[in-house]
Amino acid sequence: MLSESDAKVLKAISEGQTDPQTIAEQLGMKVEAVRASADALEERGLSKVNKTVNEIFTLTDEGRLYAREGLPERRLLQAIGSGKSMAELKDPALKIGLGWLRKKGWAVIQAGEIKPIGTAARGLDEEVLEDLLSGPKSGTMLDGNGLAALKGRSLVASSKTKAWKYEITPEGSRAASDQKAKGAESIAAITTGMIKTGDWEGGRVNYGGRLYQARPYDVTLAADRIFPGKKHPYQRLIDFMREIMLEMGFTEIKGQIVQSSFWNFDALFQPQDHPAREMQDTFYLESRAEIPDFTKVKEMHERGGTVGSTGWGGAWSPEIARQEVLRTHTTAVTIKYLADHPEPPVKAFGIDRVYRREAIDATHTPEFEQLEGVVMDRDVSFRHLLGVLAEFYSKMGFEEVRFRPGYFPYTEPSVEPEVFIDGLGWVELGGAGVFRREVTAPFGIEHPVLAWGLGVSRVAMLKLGLKDLRLLYQSDVEWLRNTPVTVKL
User: Fold this and answer.
1) Which domains does the chain possess?
2) Tens digits of per-residue pLDDT, 365-385?
């Protein structure tokens, strides 16, 4: 049983209509609907759909100029007559044709003089130029060799058009005849009016003075896929991490994307000539920021302050500290929060985007998310840090966690947490440690600060089974549709 639209299109094709646009106008349908019906009819063997692609060629502005005035090589040939010294060729427009003149074998250059040879018969490219001067033409109407020569010189442009032509099959003719003999229109939906007042006989109903044939349905067929709105997988992971941190009693903090070098580097006891500050790692801005009283930070960098450190030596520059950057880590926000809250207890975390000058590939992007947490309290120790990390990764769903010694510029001791992933083995997932006294002392922080950071995108790749980090930031609709919301995070 055909749908109502398919039946109408079949009838039109059986009556000799071959063009979808004509059928659409005749039936009051959209041409796209006509094409869809014709394709459905072809699948059932009731019609044939012949699709053709036609390439139409037109002259470019340069091609139109040459079609009117002649190709440069033809005009140059006319200009040299029986021969002319190369030094006499002053017109740049003529010089363009010099290479083509030699390539076509119309002239030679001898002892600084260009001389014509042969007959220089009218070429196929010139014939195509003349044909196109009157207007656009199909590629089938033009000489292929001449057209290829003009395409190579960018003298013609092309566009492609599609055409459909329908043809009835013997099975389609019989189906159209049967449909006409039955005199019943096919319906896809039965209305309440048909059920209440229609005169039913089998699968037919006489309703409103017209006879309808109900369309059968196969209830065993699979339903069409639906794609309900859902949260982006990467955002779900970030929200999941946020929930874990809040459940563990942490307070979420936020900060500015643009930070001064003071908070991004100097406050973390990174020397002003440290490689991490170089242009290949950091996005520097032309602007300058106001910075707080830097006396103690300057003293710490130059001489080590009062904590038994030797500092970095040299002269610390407040001008360098005022340079603004796109933050390279969320620690810039963390240290400022600690400076504003120097008294314990402090349990804070942030999940935010950071920026670095990275070449984009499957595992690197110039902007990415970091999760960072800090704990500052009386008598907390490195052992407490390991416990907090083990609890966090356990809640993330990683069953096996281990720690190995690491090095980071502003923590000591430092550690790198690793989790075990089936098929990959042990995978490093961040860094952690206890802030050095060179970091905390200038801001009046007298108690230990436990800190750790985690690359969120790396966790996302593991959790979502990705090979390419860029999928997290691209609008790949197919991937978004096929990633179920039931993925265990």
Assistant:
1) 183-219 (no CATH), 234-482 (3.30.930.10)
2) 888 899 999 999 999 999 999
